[in-house]
Write a structure and sequence with these properties.
alpha+beta, Immunoglobulin-like, five-stranded mixed sheet, elongated
């Protein structure tokens, strides 16, 4: 089962259901209010040449109508909405206590990708956040550069990622599926290409995935591809656990071959797009910090094959 996209009106968690309900109530109230105002305006225009109110009554009745509909009713409705949103919605979407969650995941925003590290594990990935279904997950967010904002609309509210600070949000998916998130704070040229994919799956399958992601890559299996990765400058920005590549400027590539997309959802992770991305990243994602490397066609093919096998 897959989420419908980035819609706050299709909730798949308790917190997001509270937000959606509040939105519908406010939308319904706004529609009723607009209808009342429009009706009064229409009646006033129809009876514009008459002194009496549309339904009869004196000037005192007109004053009561203005006070009742224009002052008292808005105060009562806004007060009720304030209490409801504060008591029910804000508390249900508040940052979770680590003791109330089964899993902690650290998410670091970069220009322009998401670094993801799982607490209590060596697992590290990028742009694709795997969580077990029907499990309270504590997301701890921060940033490595500018202000970002992490938002998965179908699962919960957004949180700002501010330099030097951490914010937390609860992610809980009530059913297996893929839920799309996005950076919701303008953070530079490729802000629109900073997608986060949240995959909720059964706990046993997630546990297997986490074990696999926590294992290092085999340095003996790299061969010519690994040597190119180390000698051509890739290791100056990327980490491949189990090898001499230990940089943290760009995404961790230890299991990059298992990801569905590249460049934070910009392109699919297949042979053609991977090769094009290595050949000229600026053409696919202008402004990215990944440089164009001087590679021959043979070197490009060998390096792409090596990265494909990192699963």
């Amino acid at each position: 089962m897959t989420g419908s996209g980035q819609s706050v009106l299709t909730p798949h968690s308790g917190p997001e259901h509270s937000i959606t309900t509040l939105w519908w109530v406010m939308f319904g109230g706004a529609c009723v209010g607009l209808t009342v105002v429009a009706t009064l305006l229409l009646l006033g225009w129809i009876r514009r040449n008459r002194d009496a109110l549309p339904f009869g009554g004196s000037e005192r009745a007109a004053t009561r109508l203005v006070v009742g509909l224009g002052i008292a009713t808005p105060i009562v409705l806004l007060s009720a909405l304030f209490v409801w949103s504060d008591v029910l919605v804000i508390r249900s979407t508040a940052a979770p206590s680590p003791r109330s969650t089964a899993l902690t995941v650290h998410v670091i925003g970069h220009q322009w990708f998401w670094e993801i590290r799982y607490g209590g594990s060596h697992a590290s990935t990028a742009n694709e956040l795997q969580i077990p279904v029907r499990t309270r997950v504590n997301i701890v967010g921060t940033t490595a550069d500018v202000i970002h904002s992490l938002w998965v609309p179908e699962l919960n509210r957004k949180i700002d990622l501010i330099p030097g600070r951490t914010n937390r949000v609860l992610l809980y998916a009530d059913r297996p599926g893929t839920y799309l998130g996005q950076c919701a704070e303008f953070c530079g040229l490729q802000h629109a290409h900073m997608e986060l994919v949240v995959v909720a799956e059964p706990r046993a399958r997630f546990a297997q995935w986490l074990r696999t992601q926590g294992t290092p890559a085999s340095s003996n299996a790299g061969g010519a591809g690994l040597q190119l990765f180390l000698s051509k400058g890739c290791a100056n920005c990327h980490e491949i656990r189990g090898t001499a590549a230990r940089a943290h400027v760009g995404p961790d590539l230890t299991h990059v071959g298992s990801r569905a997309t590249l460049a934070a959802g910009t392109i699919p992770n297949d042979r053609a797009h991977l090769t094009a991305w290595i050949r000229d990243p600026q053409q696919l994602k202008p402004g990215t910090k990944m440089p164009q490397l001087p590679l021959s066609q043979r070197e490009l093919a060998v390096l792409a094959t090596y990265l494909e096998r990192l699963k």
